[in-house]
Amino acid sequence: MSLFVDLLGWAGAAALLYGYAMVSTSRTSGDGRPYQVINLAGAVALTVNSAWHAAWPSAILNVVWGVIGLVAIGRTVGARAGHGGGERPVSRLVELSHRITEGMVTYPGVPGPRLGVHLSREASREVYAPGTEFHIGSVELVANTGTYLDTPYHRYPQGPDLSQTPLESLADLPGLVVRAEGAPSVGLDRLAELDVRGRAVLLHTGWDRHFGTEAYFHGHPYLEPEAARWLAERGPALVGIDSLNIDDTPPRGERPAHTLLLGAGIPIVEHMTGLAALPGSGFRLHAAPPLLAGMGTFPVRAYAVVDG
User: Fold this and answer.
1) What values do phi and psi take at 258, rounded to 5?
2) Which of 80, 174, 238, 278 could form a disulfide with 26 if both were Cys (CB 3.0 to 4.6 A apart)?
């Protein structure tokens, strides 16, 4: 019996460590049912082990831990019952891209897009059966237009281009927002306590409020070089910013954030918007461009799925 209780204690400890690892790597939510079930099972096993060995402080602690797990499970059951008898709560979608329009200027010196018509509805009537018509448009634009994604090829000739960057770096990424509204730059002090590995780190400066005006091009916030180095060393999946550029933009500047992040294989999304509508975490980012070969940058329809 003693051997069984000891094994049960080890199993309980392993369950709690497994649950913690799952939450820490964003594979499950801290308030979700799977994590709470793991917690409850671990707490029960450790309570039995502690009581058998008369370790009463530990036993009482694990009883409390188990009660917390039971309450959390009860809440998730109640929440699901309130959303259609077992259906998951509805997630919220947040738009994070600027609208692309004829002639818009994203960056000084970069020409705006030209929208055209390859086949008009009127002309298509000569091609299809009576009552059937289509519009086929055309567009001429610089890749750095609107909200766009930079891949390593944008900075390095041997780096992966848009067609070689894996979807795992672009879509369904656990997100994290770094708040820096009103700051002239985003420094290491805003990042140092964060777990960024494998996450989409979005720098919220609030500068998107100037998009479409002359003010957007002058004095924009950026990521400081030491902060960029810190990120590059810690492996986020992607870094985004709602500003003109992730780097400071003096004439003939070195662009250290692009150099460090893209050099580490970390894609960058610039000119984002709507970050104020996101929670600090608890959402997933999608920012996949077309599968274009031989190009390092292209506009994306970036959006977030916020947990229900």
Assistant:
1) -60, -45
2) 174
Q: Contact 270/298 with Cβ under 8 angstroms?
A: no
Q: How far from 189 is each of 32, 77, 303, CA to CA, in Å?
A: 31, 40, 27
- Gap between the Cα atoms of 1 and 126, Å rounded: 86
Q: Residue holding tokens 């608890």?
A: 282
Q: Which whole number is the average pLDDT over 56-71?
A: 75
Provide the token pair at 306: 């916020």
Q: Decide if 86 contacts 80 (C-beta within 8 A).
A: yes
State pLDDT tens for residues 92-122: 999 999 999 999 999 999 999 999 999 999 9
Q: In whole angstroms, what is the distance from residue 51 CA to residue 246 CA?
A: 56
Residue 57 has pLDDT above 90, yes or no: no
| pLDDT digit string, tens, across residues 209-247 | 999 999 999 999 999 999 999 999 999 999 999 999 999
Residue 41 backbone class (left: φ over 0; alpha: ψ -120 to 50; beta: rest)? alpha
* pTM tops 0.70, yes or no: yes
Under a CB-based contact definition with an 8 Å cutoff, are residues 199 and 176 in contact?
yes
What is the DSSP annotation of 86-147?
A: SPPPPPEEEE-SPPP-TT--SSTTPPPPEEEEEE-HHHHTTTS-TT----EEEEE--SS-SS
